[in-house]
Amino acid sequence: MTDIQIAQAAKKENIVEIAKKLGLTEDDIEQYGKYKAKVNLDVLQKSKRPNGKLILVTAITPTPAGEGKSTVTIGLTQALNKLGKLSAAAIREPSLGPVFGMKGGAAGGGYAQVVPMEDINLHFTGDMHAIGIAHNLISACIDNHINSGNALGIDITKITWKRVVDMNDRALRNVVIGLGGKANGYPRQDSFQITVGSEIMAILCLSNSITELKEKIKNIVIGTSVEGKLIKVEDLHIEGAVAALLKDAIKPNLVQTLENTPVFIHGGPFANIAHGCNSILATKMALKLTDYVVTEAGFAADLGAEKFIDIKCRLGGLKPDCAVIVATVRALEHHGKGDLKAGLENLDKHIDNIKNKYKLPLVVAINKFITDTDEQIAMIEKFCNERGAEVSLCEVWAKGGEGGKDLAEKVLRAIDGNKTEFDYFYDINLTIKEKIEKICKEIYGADGVVFAPATKKVFDTIAAEGLEKLPVCMSKTQKSISDNPALLGKPTGFKVTINDLRLAVGAGFVIAMAGDIIDMPGLPKKPSAEVIDIDENGVISGLF
Ligand SMILES: Nc1ncnc2c1ncn2[C@@H]1O[C@H](COP(=O)(O)OP(=O)(O)O)[C@@H](O)[C@H]1O
Ligand SMILES: O=COP(=O)(O)O
């Protein structure tokens, strides 16, 4: 059976029953049909439970299909519940870009899925659309302000705020707007990014309250004036309207796994162009209501995990208790150019980073595919044992929670035996340049960093505006630990090139654009859109 067939055959429980497992009543949730709900933020104050433990699921450097972080995250929370532990997953909402592109959905796979998967992978509860409209309201107000006399003196060649759409559409990377004469405004170059790369998405994911959400929106920098002054959303007096559009989106969503265990889904930033983690609010809510929260951060440990620690945990006051690194035979063979043993060096680097840089106890989860042989699995297990890394053969895709019990037991032991004192990877008092250099040298293994001439002006602004103490959001390819997609395995002898810096003052970080990373993906030659369909009864097919 395909993922969607398994999901559609699932025996779902009414979302009120799932909420009850968390000690929530119908007054604590706002139902979106029988199987979806939003959870009211006051639950965070009402729950008197001590915080649960936080487990981060990350991965080795993935193939384009992904190596199973969402699948293992969902399977692990299913397994913990099977062991009698009250556990919830906290994951990101899928973007329509990959759903209609190549990668497919992000609701797990096999017998480790969140349901209703077609809702979750399509419009869900509308958060992605709300985030997009909130973002584009700012864009419309910028052009309207300029068209109405430009009292702020916005330099139309230095507007850094783009427009968004939640779709992979390369044709929108560089556009000209305002054509057709005076009645239509004024012509200027503009650009679209995919909604999940929007600073509004980051703000929604990194806010601890609606008050903080509004404050962050006020601080969004949209560009500079002709005198070089930073122009912020508050200068346009629209932060209230932008926040109002997010009145429902700010509330975390509650759904369930195939085994009727609770899952929070909230926010969906990619981890190559953005910080790659689900929201602080959903994670805090899950921690308040359960004993073990399993969350995931996008792509590999050099991207999502680093930003989970240095951005999400730092801004949310969160402390992870254990990390799971998902490894697969196919990805390791990919890194070894067909030679699994050679590809193990990629796993080696990620184990080193998590153990010695992020200082977290870890378990390697071998996400078993039906094509894997016993010899291949044994080779990975032997490598981990020699490395002193705990390892578990994870079969949650094929067996659901039952296939994740060994992993769950090893994670519980790793948490109980954890003696390390968690700390962020870098000192926030370093300069932005020092933070970038520390990440590139120690996490990526670079010999050094080259800053393109275009970054100098931004560094000057960072210094002049007192922004040095912000965290850094590294934006780079997910295909390599370096900034060069062609460098597989554990690259050495390379430098990282920072081509651009962007001020995400609202979200609270500086984005460092490394290599040729772009924030509007394109569709593949054969997009998944060609196989997705709906029948007369409204049954969707082709989603995966
Ligand atoms: N063990 C497995 N066997 C077969 N397919 C799998 C397995 N694990 C994951 N997949 C599939 O691989 C794709 C990526 O899995 P996903 O969990 O979304 O990865 P990630 O979250 O790391 O991107 C999905 O289509 C999923 O169904
Ligand atoms: O941002 C990317 O996330 P995945 O690794 O789940 O595709």
Characterise this structure.
The protein has 544 residues and is of the alpha/beta class. It folds into three domains: 3-124 and 249-417, P-loop containing nucleotide triphosphate hydrolases (Rossmann fold); 127-233, Domain 2, N(10)-formyltetrahydrofolate synthetase (2-Layer Sandwich); 432-513, Formyltetrahydrofolate synthetase, domain 3 (Roll). Helix content is 36%, strand content 20%. Strands 1, 2, 3, 4, 5, 6, 14, 15, 16, 17, 18 and 19 form a twelve-stranded mixed sheet that branches. A four-stranded mixed sheet has the order 20-22-23-21. Formyl phosphate (XPO) binds at residues 66, 69-70, 106, 270-271, 276, 298-299. Belongs to the formate--tetrahydrofolate ligase family. It comes from Fusobacterium canifelinum.
Q: Beta-strand percentage?
A: 15-25%
CATH topology of the largest domain: Rossmann fold
Count of separate DSSP helical elements: 20
Associated small molecules: adenosine-5'-diphosphate, formyl phosphate
The parts where pLDDT drops under 50 for at least 5 residues are: none
Distance between the termini: 11 Å
Global structural class: alpha/beta
Q: Kindly provide the name of the CATH class of the largest domain.
A: Alpha Beta
Second-tier CATH architecture of the largest domain? 3-Layer(aba) Sandwich
User: Total domains, how many?
Assistant: 3
Binned, the helix content reads 25-40%
Largest sheet: 12 strands, mixed
Radius of gyration: 23 Å
The count of DSSP E runs of length 2 or more, i.e. the number of strands, is 25
Shape: globular
CATH superfamily of the largest domain: P-loop containing nucleotide triphosphate hydrolases
